[in-house]
UniProtKB/TrEMBL annotation:
Keyword Magnesium applies: no
Primary location: cytoplasm
InterPro entries from the UniProt entry: GIY-YIG_endonuc, GIY-YIG_endonuc_sf, GIY-YIG_UvrC_Cho, RuvA_2-like, UVR_dom, UVR_dom_sf, UvrABC_protein_C, UvrC
Domain GIY-YIG: 18-95
Gene (name only): uvrC
Name recorded for this polypeptide: UvrABC system protein C
GO cellular component: cytoplasm; excinuclease repair complex
The keyword Hydrolase is annotated on this UniProt entry: yes
Subcellular localization: Cytoplasm
Assembly with partners or alone: Interacts with UvrB in an incision complex.
Domain UvrC family homology region profile, residue spans: 251-476
Top-level division of the source organism's lineage: Bacteria
Length: 603
């Protein structure tokens, strides 16, 4: 289908230069919904409105009401600018990657007295990071093994006397003496060699100790050593050797079909395939998937907690030189042998993932995007991508909170969920402060989005009736000058959602109840949103209430002030765990001996 451009766009198309640069497509609200780049802006931008469009690109063009361009000198500059603009605007139709891997790393810290620890955040602090490790429990067990066999520092530093770990042989003594730098350096070399896969001598020693423990009938000790062996193999020796060297490599390949792009990533560490990731997303630039693939790689390494390897392998057709210059690591395309076979295997896996996606796509769209369209159609609104919903929770006025959930195209976007501790108390008898809570959370949410120039939702669903809807609309219209549609999710006398409440009294439109077919996907989505926001609010309130109750108990303990209380809350999180902690555990959390004894006596 060919979409007719607006008069404004038609006039701007005549002025497009034949230069490289970036273009920013905007919707009716002036929000940037897509960022692209081209060697020839005139040809690329005109193609959106002068050519037949299908799929994802057709959806995009249907929403375009204006655009801006930025010209640059070279295609490489356009590429770098595109990545910057995508990060800045987070456009809906561009590929959006979730931050972080969710997997832990083992870190050797860069300090005078270094230590080994697990971390999920990579800092540019010149520390050594190994991983990420998909099996969290195996990584934890391996770290404990390292701390026992290759000790560095396990205490908080100099305290004038040896710590408990020093007496256990798990600390080199930074707690009471100046440990020579060479002693640390030698130990770090051993740890790095171990984590890089040289575990033969360690395994041999463990096997010998296990056999000796078994021969001495110390079966519990033998089982403990057996588990250590298992965890080490899981973390450090997870796969068989599949490469001829120990170079850290990431292998990227892709497969395209029906305007969808599937990317497969293999992570090779210590000459083994440590893990893999797959990303599948719809294409907007149908004719140039290589551009989207290249952009994906740069964004991938622009995320937090992404460590660049020593080498990246990509298929033919990619500008390896420019990509290498941007990422500052070699980017190569193997022509033969084992590396080429791995690249082809990555493509085959990308194809399998995309085939699975197609089998589920039709059913998924009907249950998600189609369901969301039913809600907008019932309200007489044009389709919108984002729905936000609020709910409040309290116990007879105590610890009032509010929760926000976000659904994008019918699916929960949990990274966008928000929690709010409310300032006012709820007067349960007359419900008067229910309005104040609604006003407060709406003011805080959308006032912040305004200040940060972020995109507003297309619809707000309040978990309540006319009172909550009117309070929300009053803040939006009269305080923030926003015109976001607001509807209420109304329950029947059996506390089951059965209607939407919608209207605009400010503009003379009375509220009315709008039914949804109880057997429709739209009705199912509405009840799912309501259940989700209620669950999220209740869960948050229970944690807040429990934490406040725990704080009160700790405040009653003699010698425990706010700082000590916070140390205990951070370290243990619950009264039960504090009760179960030993004196040494409490002292390691930062308490003095007197404070720790007071806690044990009181609890």
């Amino acid at each position: 289908m060919i979409f007719l451009a607006t008069e404004l766009v038609e006039n701007k198309l005549k002025l497009l230069p034949e230069k490289p640069g970036c273009y920013l497509m905007k919707d009716i609200n002036g929000t940037v919904i897509y960022v692209g780049k081209s060697k020839n802006l005139k040809n690329r931008v005109r193609s959106y409105f002068k050519s037949k469009q299908v799929g994802r690109r057709a959806e995009l063009v249907k929403e375009i009401r204006d655009y801006d361009i930025i010209t640059v000198s070279t295609d490489k500059e356009a590429f770098l600018l595109e990545i910057t603009l995508i990060k800045k605007y987070q456009p809906y139709y561009n590929v959006q990657l979730k931050q972080g891997t969710g997997y832990p790393y083992i870190e050797i810290t860069n300090e005078r007295d270094p230590q080994t620890k697990l971390t999920s955040v990579i800092h540019k602090d010149k520390g050594y990071y190994f991983g990420p490790y998909p099996n969290v429990y195996a990584a934890q067990a391996t770290l404990k093994f390292i701390q026992k066999v290759f000790p560095l520092r396990r205490c908080n530093g100099h305290q004038g006397r040896p710590c408990l770990y020093y007496h256990m042989g798990q600390c080199l003594g930074a707690c009471f003496k100046n440990v020579p730098q060479k002693e640390y350096d030698d130990q770090i070399k051993r740890i790095k060699r171990f984590l890089n896969g040289d575990i033969a001598s360690v395994k041999q020693d463990l096997i010998q100790r296990m056999e000796e423990a078994s021969a001495d009938l110390e079966f519990e000790r033998a089982a403990e050593i057996r588990d250590q062996l298992k965890y080490i193999e899981e973390t450090v020796e997870k796969q068989k050797i599949i490469s001829n060297d120990n170079t850290q490599r990431d292998i990227f390949n892709f497969y395209v079909d029906k305007s969808w792009l599937s990317v497969q990533i293999f992570f090779l560490r210590q000459a083994k395939l440590l893990r893999r990731e797959t990303k599948v997303f719809p294409l907007t630039e149908e004719n140039e998937p290589e551009d989207e693939f290249t952009s994906f790689i740069v964004q991938f390494y622009g995320q937090r907690n992404r460590v660049l390897p020593k080498e990246i392998l990509v298929p033919e057709g990619i500008d390896n030189e420019d990509l290498s210059e941007i990422l500052h690591v070699p980017v190569r395309t193997p022509q033969r042998g084992q590396k080429k076979a791995l690249l082809e295997m990555a493509k085959e896996n990308a194809k399998l993932k995309l085939d699975d996606k197609f089998r589920l796509l039709e059913l998924g769209n009907r249950k998600t995007k189609g369901a969301q369209k039913e809600i907008f159609d019932a309200l007489g609104l044009p389709y919108g991508h984002v729905i936000e919903s609020f709910d409040h929770s309290h116990i007879q006025g105590a610890d009032p909170v509010s929760a926000l959930v976000v659904f994008k195209d019918g699916e929960p976007d949990k990274t966008s969920y928000r929690k709010y501790k409310l300032k006012g108390e709820v007067e349960h008898q007359n419900g008067g402060d229910e309005l104040r809570n609604t006003r407060e959370v709406v003011r805080r949410r959308y006032g912040r989005l305004l200040r940060e120039h972020k995109k507003m939702p297309d619809l707000i669903l309040m978990d309540g009736g006319q009172i909550q809807v009117e309070a929300c609309e009053d803040v939006l219209r009269n305080e923030l000058n926003l015109n976001i549609p607001v509807a209420g999710m109304v329950k029947d006398d059996k506390h089951r959602t059965n209607h939407l409440l919608f209207g605009d009294p400010i503009n003379g439109e009375a509220f009315k109840l709008i039914p949804l077919d109880p057997k429709s996907q739209g009705f199912y989505l509405m009840t799912r949103i309501q259940d989700e926001v209620h669950r999220f609010a209740i869960t948050f309130h229970r944690r807040t209430h429990a934490k406040n109750a725990l704080s009160s108990r700790l405040d009653e303990i003699k010698g425990i002030g706010p700082k000590s209380r916070n140390k205990l809350l951070r370290e243990f999180g619950s009264l039960k765990k504090i009760k179960e902690a030993s004196i040494d555990d409490l002292r390691n959390a930062g308490l003095t001996l007197t404070q720790a004894q007071s806690v044990k006596l009181t609890l």
